[in-house]
Input
Amino acid sequence: GITIVDAKKCMEEKLKRYLHPFEIIHHKNWIKTDNRIENLELTTRVEHPKIDEKIQKGWKTKRKGGKFMK
Output
């Protein structure tokens, strides 16, 4: 099956390098099994909570079909 490790591998292949220890992958739609490259965003451990906070402030937390609705 698909795992979180797959997201890291997908991003490393796109970047053509290994991720640094401080880098993590953010799933834009918050579905951790959706490892399509267009759903992945490279960020840092420091910046990641800011991304989630920004999303929560700008979008209702109600999900429809795996996507957040305004």
The chain has a mean pLDDT of 78. The two ends are 31 Å apart (CA to CA). Residues 4-15 form the longest helix (12 residues).
